[in-house]
Specification:
The chain is mainly α and 122 residues long. The chain has eight helices and no strands. The longest helix has 27 residues. It starts with a helix and ends with a helix.
Amino acid sequence: MSFRERLKDEIVYQGLQLKEVAAKAEISKRTLDTYVDKRERMPAADVAVKLAKALNITTEYLVTGNDGKNENNKAVVLYHKYEKIITLLEKLDGNDITYVEAMIEGIADKSKNTSHAESHTI
């Protein structure tokens, strides 16, 4: 994942608008656009720091994608990975969500039991 993708994903994950992030980072929206559009321009170090602070994440995560100290890191990666499923889940009502949760728990238990049994047959 690139700087551009991590930046865009974090903005979407936090439900922010580009103009909000630009204002928090004290940069112009036009400048921010160059970091999230197809140009994939990499910001100067001081701007990367401002963007990370504006998003309450570490600069290291934003630039490299690696940072065990960043609590949002795993959540953003999971959100990106399961975004389609999350979008579909948001369309369901309470009864359907309960059914889906039970179904997922059943599949997870089955998977857990299968992999546990397989580890003992080796």
